[in-house]
Amino acid sequence: MLSEVGTLLIGLGLAATLYAAAATLWGLTYKDDRWLQSGKNATDTVPALTGGALLLLALAFLNDRFEIAYVAQHASRALPLELKLSALWAGQEGSLLLWGFLQALFAALATHRPAKLEVAAPGASLSNALPLLAPETGAGSIGEETTPNLTETVRPLIPWATVFLNGITAFFIAVTLGFSNPFALSSVVPADGLGLNPLLRHAGMIFHPPAMYVGYVGVAVPFAFALAALVTGRVEGWTAAVRSWALVAWIGLGLGLLLGMRWAYDVLGWGGYWGWDPVENAGLMPWLTMTAFLHGAAMQDERRGFQGWSFALIIASFVLVLFGTFATRSGLIQSVHAYARSNLGTPFMAAIVVTLAGSLALLLWRRGALAPAPAQTASPSLLSREGMFFLTLVLFATLTLSVFVGSVLPTLTSWIGSRPFEAGPAWFDRVTGPQFAALLLLLGLCPLIGRSAAVLQQLWSRSWPIFAGTTLTIGATALAGFTQPAALIGLGLVGLAGSTALLEYALAIKARRDNTGESPFRALGELLRRQPRRYAGYLVHLGVVLMGVGIIGTRLYPLEQDVTLTWGETAKVGDYTLLLENMQQESVDDSLGTWANVDLYRNGRYVSTLMPRINRYRALEQSIGVPALQPGLREDLYLILAGWSNDGSEATFKVILNPLANFLWVGGLVFLAGGALALRPMKARQADPRREPQRAVGLLVAFSLLIGAGWTMWGLPHGTVNRDTARPIPGSPAPSFELPLLDGSSFTLKTPPEGITVVSFWAPWCATCQQSLPVMRSVWEAYHDRGVTFVGIAYQSEETEVRAAVDEYGIPYPVGLDREDALANRYGITGVPESFVIDTQGRVAFLHVGPVSAEQFVQELETLLEGETP
Amino acid sequence: MRAKPNFIIAGLLILAAVFYLMVSSTQETAHYFLTVEEVLTLDETASQRPVTVSGAVLGESITYDSALPRVTFTIVQVPGDPQEVEAQGGLAQVLHTAVQNPAAPRLTVVYDDIRPELLQHEAQAIIRGHQGADGRFYADEVLLKCPSRYEEALPEQTEG
């Protein structure tokens, strides 16, 4: 029943969206407003129908309806609630349904027609228009970004955009229904589902796919308006009209990419976040072209030309969205995402061909309208604002081309008759690195040049802080030890770009203060309010700069080391010392978890306890490693459990130090926050009080998404705990103490002690301790007259039992009770037996978690005694 | 942009530079994308180059020394051409047939890293590395997919 209703809803959605496209087309052809209205009404029902289907699917997941194959394949009874919901888009069928729904929703929202009445009021808002679909434009670098009345530009575009958007929606719904229906029934109803792929059980996976899809469907809106502009021949104003939609798409793609990177970093356990994998590339390419589009649209809105670029870029973006899905689902490209080769290849290939052929034909047909206006035919210098933007667009285009060529290199090289070549990360780094560096350079130079077409002298007087900032960044990073030439060049560019953006803020704030006497914060707020594109744009640039720092650090300076440790053993990696405390195992839900407790010290000081683990999922016969992560401003320490010996006494780890990694994540958030601020409507629309609640909601949603993203990055524990106390590791001073002994006297460990001291924590109730007491006794007998002092500290024990054990085992050395765990806390022990061998300088020389053999003790004591008598 | 020759020249220069980067990187860093059979027939000079090879994992061959760590396993020839894979009944079927064919070419892979979690019988392995003089393949990077378990088995990427 559920299955049939779900399929029916999708079918009705398809019928409604096809009708909407046809009715609108009819209305356009015969100039009949009733058909247009009917088409719009139908457009509005599609999100309700597909949303209903999505809701049904969610209900099926919540109620464990395993008769539906998709539910059985992606969930199980034991799966927690939030993961059941994220399982909704864990597979192709659900993803496509979500895509179709979002596409329908965006189509309905984007095609609200602005009311005619508003046209009379110049510069007034379009009250019937969705807040996002507002005609806006920037008045360039001179004054406030204002909104000229573009209603007349937008209105005629809407019916055509309705046709194209419904066509796109119809494609996705039809593919869902025809090739990958999420409501298909299982042939046999299983008692329990397979469960969610363990790799997908991560908070990032709850947000990453929807963010990506918002990006993908968002691209379709400006694309549809671009086609509408071409059809109607109104090629000038459309970019301003769809600016907010383009931004939404761009933010969605950016957030999706960032969360995907973070997921890879947290979950995949190779210490990296970007592997130039084809699926990553598939998401990156439309983001690159959309970034270029936003820049080109800014130029077009300033009436500086670039119409051809805007059309080409938005068409490229949409085709790349389709191509990404085609490439990864058709088996054309090998990928870590390992989507099974599915039957989606053909429809997507057809869609790409139709889209490309149709759009290019329209573009050719209208090429006359795209001819530059007379004012633009004068040849501006490359060092002008236009020139800088032109170079920026070219670089974004070549970057996209590079990523594309790299992704299809095996296919491409076999086509040209060579042996098939495959592009690894080294290929991508080599090809894209210089292009990204050139973009950073432009990012630093562009505002300078745009600002002062003036004389060089003025340029210098304005730019000395930038050169100072650049030099300072290079100097500081070189002093911090980042001295590779590539890193210095990269960080120099980062310094240049960063100081430029900061200088822009400083100059603008100063100018406002000089004029109005506002406080700096108010001035900043006003700048962001009045010229959101420009000043939020600089925030985006600052984000890029911070990300650049992170990318340079992690790409050029990662340190990787394999270490094998026994319990109580330490190893040094960089400034860090790792101490394996023990291994533990626990059965949880559908898996058996094995983890190591590793105490982490930096320069001898305890930082935290890391718990890298491997979960063995029984039903899935699959093991998944969960790395532990200690984030830090200077570097992240990333710890992976590689394996352990059969008795669990020894474990092997991979330790990765990722310098400056957090700059990447912080930069990503700054970057997205800049995008969200740019979404703020421009000045002219601010005057409309009716927009206040909508604007507040919009900002709230944007920032809660960012906070959510921040939470997934830093809010989660990442396999670390912080203990109040920790063991002193070898080389660090042993805490001094005074212990009341059983015989009424007391033992004092002074600093420095009187000789070599063995401090042994034990307990009469502990079987391992009982076995090691004779060992301790034999060692004492051999060494007590060679200046070695022994002291036994009874841990969490009753005095009578301790006395009985001392008598039974004939413990010859002083023993005292550790009241209220005072000493156990000072020595950071977490169980017994544990022992510390302290040298004559009062430093811990050796420590043992668990029992120690007599041979081991003898060897250690001999080493210390030999060292003493040179 | 028609009326701006300086723009066109600058654009073409950038394009030429990027084209040069792509070609030179392909010559210097790109891997041959080969099947097991092709790797086994590589001559001396060609075996110096980094290679990407794909094959089906033979479950019983997997050994892991966690203390080093080092994984060794054997992969079996599968066709390199996606269309041929499709013609033989899809990837899962091809992998299944491959591991049961004792006559198919095989290659021993040595990977000095943590045992990848998806390394199991009949998984598809895509391995970047180079062919050693001892006839074994030394992997720098191992990519695995298990099409049988999930309809779309998710990924694992390990880098070495």
Walk me through this protein's architecture.
The complex is a heterodimer of chains A (870) and B (160). Chain A is of the alpha+beta class and 870 residues long. Chain A is 57% helix and 13% strand. In chain A, the strands form 4 sheets. In chain A, strands 3, 4, 5, 6, 7, 8 and 12 form a 7-stranded antiparallel β-sheet that branches. Chain A has a 5-stranded mixed β-sheet with strand order 17-16-15-18-19, with helices on one face. Chain A has a 4-stranded antiparallel β-sheet with strand order 2-11-10-9. In chain A, helix 5 (92-110) packs across helix 7 (203-232). Chain A is elongated and about 110 Å long. Chain B has helices spanning 5-28, 36-40, 82-87, 91-99; strands at 31-35, 51-65, 70-77, 106-111, 124-131, 137-145, 157-159. A 5-stranded mixed barrel of chain B has the order 2-3-4-6-5. In chain B, strand 2 and strand 3 (70-77) form a beta hairpin.
Helix-strand category of chain B: alpha+beta
Radius of gyration of chain B: 20 Å
Work out the strand percent of chain A.
5-15%
Biggest protein-protein contact in the assembly = A-B, 82 and 62 residues
Largest sheet of chain A: 7 strands, antiparallel
Q: Notable features of this structure?
A:
heterodimer, A: 870 residues, alpha+beta, seven-stranded antiparallel sheet, five-stranded mixed sheet, elongated, B: 160 residues, five-stranded mixed β-barrel, 7 strands, 28% helix, disordered C terminus
